[in-house]
């Protein structure tokens, strides 16, 4: 992937005392290849490379950085600029209810995103109202209605005999009666771009004048997503994008080039199927993530959301004094469970290597096992894991209805997270200290 690729390029650059035109040339050739491999638009890649080169060769000489670090810094800044520099927030109508229209091809994630946005908006103090407008497939209306029920967000009762624009107009009145201030309009999709669909979407847009017209596109489709974005933008004057399935093996190219190609901002990324799996898009953080510097800020935000600060500080103390026990480990697991998978979270951190993550593959189901195993340990064992040898392992496995292998796996996860924590502390990541979930 792109970050691994760039990592090795920059490792080479880091070794050089001075930066010559030759080794810049070398490094940038690698960057360019990496960008193309990540499926970044060809022209966009070419432009950003020439911007980076001009800056790297010229002016900006900094005392505090090595030449290689300087190039990384420039690449980071140019990537950030390319993706729109700063996070673009949603617009809301100054008066009356705000309408947010979601458009995009079938399967791109519109309905899922409508649910995610409802969750996001509610967390930000707004009152969302879900409006299903895909009248061609009764299943589509059902899908959103179910989602609304699950989340306890009201859904307009659309029926397949109603015209889409009419639904939106009636939904606006219904929203007012319910005290809802933000309509999330889930429009119909097609497998391919077609004129009839565009005309329908245009009619809805003109009729309700939404504050946002968001195109939802599947990041896994790479440059196709960017092309589709361009087509929709031409007809509908899109206000921003949502790229979904960024949790999959999307190569990152769409996120990198969509702003540069269309001139419109990427506002959110979808990172999973759950309603909580939506992140405001921050160009600077994404650039760092792509460059393998880790998405420290996103990580901190998530950690702070889920972990009580005071408790985290206590934990950090325990870590420093090597008193982090298996009981603490269990408590932390419980907290982290609320944040999505531990692996995702750690993947955002700088310096975490992929092999470590493989050993740390703990999901919800396994957590129940872990809990059982730790519960079957004596207090002494929980405090001093080193005393857990073969016979104790056998007893613990029996007691918890698991296997010795499971016990070993848990102990390995535990020692791995100890190791990682020590590494971060040594790395002097002061701002992360006291916030880490374990
Ligand atoms: P729509 O046809 O545009 O409304 O698409 P849906 O919202 O029904 O989503 C299509 C599929 O993509 C569903 O299986 C969703 O669970 C899945 N999906 C949507 N967004 C994401 C995402 O960010 N990550 C992952 N992994 N799956 C997603
Ligand atoms: Mg749908």
TrEMBL record:
GTP binds at residues 104-111, 186-190, 244-247. CDD domains: SRP_G (cd18539). It comes from the Bacteria. It catalyses: GTP + H2O = GDP + phosphate + H(+). It is found in: Cytoplasm. It is an enzyme of class 3 (hydrolase). Keywords: Cytoplasm, GTP-binding, Hydrolase, Nucleotide-binding, Ribonucleoprotein, RNA-binding, Signal recognition particle. Residues 265-278 form the SRP54-type proteins GTP-binding domain. One of its GO terms (molecular function) is GTPase activity. GO terms for biological process: SRP-dependent cotranslational protein targeting to membrane. Its main location: cytoplasm. Composed of three domains: the N-terminal N domain, which is responsible for interactions with the ribosome, the central G domain, which binds GTP, and the C-terminal M domain, which binds the RNA and the signal sequence of the RNC. Part of the signal recognition particle protein translocation system, which is composed of SRP and FtsY. Involved in targeting and insertion of nascent membrane proteins into the cytoplasmic membrane. Binds to the hydrophobic signal sequence of the ribosome-nascent chain (RNC) as it emerges from the ribosomes. The SRP-RNC complex is then targeted to the cytoplasmic membrane where it interacts with the SRP receptor FtsY. PANTHER family: SIGNAL RECOGNITION PARTICLE 54K PROTEIN SRP54 (PTHR11564), SIGNAL RECOGNITION PARTICLE SUBUNIT SRP54 (PTHR11564:SF5). This is Signal recognition particle protein. It comes from Desulfobacter latus. The gene is ffh.
